[in-house]
User: Which sequence fits this backbone?
């Protein structure tokens, strides 16, 4: 069964909401309430959840805790993923400290940088290697996922070095740089640029101080 | 005219691609090529661009430079936005150094933190204030946008303090925390958690080592 990306995105939203509701000791929630809180149609919520085998009680709703555990299982990792981080600057360091990266789902097993102050040292308990060793270390440590937090100018060479290892399966990039990634490697991007541009676009629309000119440009 | 969010997202993708093509000295690009490179249907590309007043030449395509400037104008800011950053830890520092935040579209005019080592100092040329001064400083400096890079536990109080000022119009959050934001404030999130979970979900699907159980849970 192939699950579409927007479905997975909604599933992650459901999980996050249910986890919060569970923490707030909410016992039951309806598809209408879930939809309202997330800006999704109730019919879509019911469709998604029934697709994953969960049907709410008519007039009652879903058991929060049960549904939360159920979605957690769907999102669960089959094993601990082996992760490496390229780029131990401020962003990389922030990522290492981010709650999201303290997940039981994976383990950061290698760092890469070119800074002589960092290479050869352990940082937050993880060994930092020189970037030129990327392919070898990724292969030796059987790394599945590379987190890419290097400057834009170094992004492509990091991806190439990682992709040269047979073990790498996915890359999560934190750079706005466009990079070419082989088809067999999953590539996702945490897109600061796009979110910021969206915010600014709608701010402008809202302010309405400047009318956007959509008419044709002069030839 | 109200532009839908997915349209704006595509517009940002077009812009990024065209900017790159322009840098590579590509002169002309067809809707089919744009679509291929971005994973969007050619018909959608043509529809989007004609909606914004740009029509390619049949059998030739779009003039890259002209189209790039055109979209840049649509995304352009009517004025320089006044921005403040809450949380000057590793993440906040990384954001200040990020190319995206060296945009001519806005200016970071205040930092907020609670660390006595930072409060009262200038960091990368910007004054850092104590978080308890958030409302006053945001009002005085007429800040439009707050970048939220504080730990999850501090996110809500930061949002509340910012929202208490009449000047704040938008928040871009870098925290996974769920926060309540007044309706009159635009809120976007750079969602590290969701992108990472998506990557791990599709990695799992691809590996196919573990079958996901979609059948009904026991009652």
Assistant:
């Amino acid at each position: 069964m192939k699950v579409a990306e927007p479905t997975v995105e909604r599933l992650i939203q459901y999980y996050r909401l249910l986890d919060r509701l569970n923490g707030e000791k909410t016992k039951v929630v309806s598809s209408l309430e879930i939809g309202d809180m997330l800006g999704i149609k109730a019919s879509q919520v019911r469709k998604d959840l029934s697709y994953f085998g969960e049907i709410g009680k008519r007039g009652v709703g879903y058991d929060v805790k049960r549904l939360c555990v159920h979605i957690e299982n769907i999102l669960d990792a089959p094993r601990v993923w082996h992760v490496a981080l390229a780029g131990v600057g401020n962003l990389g360091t922030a990522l290492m400290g981010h709650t999201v990266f303290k997940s039981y789902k994976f383990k950061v097993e290698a760092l890469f940088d070119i800074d002589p102050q960092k290479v050869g040292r352990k940082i937050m308990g993880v060994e930092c290697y020189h970037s030129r060793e990327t392919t070898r270390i990724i292969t030796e440590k059987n790394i599945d996922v590379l987190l890419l937090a290097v400057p834009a100018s170094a992004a492509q060479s990091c991806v190439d070095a990682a992709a040269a290892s047979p073990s790498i399966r996915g890359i999560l990039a934190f750079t706005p740089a466009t990079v070419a990634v082989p088809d067999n490697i999953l590539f996702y991007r945490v897109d600061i640029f796009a979110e910021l541009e969206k915010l600014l676009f709608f701010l402008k629309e809202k302010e309405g101080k400047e009318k956007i000119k959509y008419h044709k440009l002069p030839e």
Summary: The two ends of chain A are 50 Å apart (CA to CA). The beta strands of chain A are 28-29, 62-63, 81-86, 106-113, 122-123, 126-130, 145-148, 170-173, 186-189.
